[in-house]
Amino acid sequence: MSVQLAPELRIEILSDRWVTQLAEIEQLSFPTPWSEKLIRDEIKKDYAFALGLTFGDQLIAYAINNLITDELHVLTLAVHPAFREQGHGAHLVDGLLTEARNRGARSVFLEVRKGNLPAQKLYERFEFCFIGIRKEYYSDNREDAFVLKRLIR
Ligand SMILES: CC(C)(COP(=O)(O)OP(=O)(O)OC[C@H]1O[C@@H](n2cnc3c(N)ncnc32)[C@H](O)[C@@H]1OP(=O)(O)O)[C@@H](O)C(=O)NCCC(=O)NCCS
Questions:
Q1: Å from CA of 4 to ligand 1 middle
Q2: What is the 3-state secondary structure (H, E, C) of the chain?
Q3: How far, in Å, are 1, 8, 134 from residue 51 at the CA level?
Q4: Whose CA is nearest to atom 42 of ligand 1?
Q5: Pocket of ligand 1 contains residue 31 by CB under 6 Å
Q6: What does the alpha-carbon distance between residue 63 and residue 74 come to, in Å, rounded to a whole number?
Q7: Below-70 pLDDT ranges, the chain
Q8: 145 inside domain
Q9: Nearest residue to 149 (alpha-carbon basis) of 50, 58, 72, 63
Q10: What is the CATH number of the domain that holds 33?
Q11: Position 120 in a domain
């Protein structure tokens, strides 16, 4: 007889089977979301990986990243809208910093919209520092991006 264990929150590397759910969350989260094909092609690259926070078969949150030499670049990151403001973003970023350290990264870089206060609050909590501005970085509304960096100690 097999025992059915209750699902639990897990941080895991996302394989191809998660891509449909990941693309759905992208759609719900960004004005110019990554397509399913783009995501599939990206995570095949040997320097790329997607990290997810899962609950059974449900994808709660994810980050798609590139590890280039000892720099981890976060390309896109989101929490499913139904699960926001419950600490899942923080759980994911915490897991991402651990994964970055395990892979030998010395620093993490990302861009965040100037007007995206929830995300800035999240990154502030993890001691990301402002290092510059990319003017009119986002094509949909020409919003500036803040470039943030976090050293891995
Ligand atoms: C930004 C995002 C990832 C935050 O995820 P989340 O699960 O809601 O975040 P958490 O519940 O873990 O909260 C983390 C911190 O952010 C703050 N925060 C989250 N949502 C907030 C909101 N709407 N307004 C103000 N602060 C907010 C929390 O207060 C918390 O800070 P604290 O610990 O100092 O109180 C989520 O809102 C999201 O997916 N947004 C759309 C996609 C996006 O903007 N991605 C980031 C691109 S750079």
A1: 33
A2: CCCCCCCCEEEEECCHHHHHHHHHHHHHHCCCCCCHHHHHHHHHCCCEEEEEEEECCEEEEEEEEEEECCEEEEEEEEECHHHCCCCHHHHHHHHHHHHHHHCCCCEEEEEEECCCHHHHHHHHHCCCEEEEEECCCCCCCCCCEEEEEEECC
A3: 33, 16, 26
A4: 78
A5: no
A6: 7
A7: 1-2, 4
A8: no
A9: 72
A10: 3.40.630.30
A11: no
- Residue 73, ligand 1, Cβ within 6 A: no
- The answer to whether residue 148 sits within a structural domain is no
Domain total for the chain? 1
The single-letter code of the amino acid at 18 is W
Residue the block writes with tokens 């599939």: 40
- Kindly report, residue by residue over 94-112, the tens digit of the pLDDT: 999 999 999 999 999 999 9
- Answer whether residue 101 is part of any domain: yes
Q: Domain range spanning residue 75?
A: 9-110
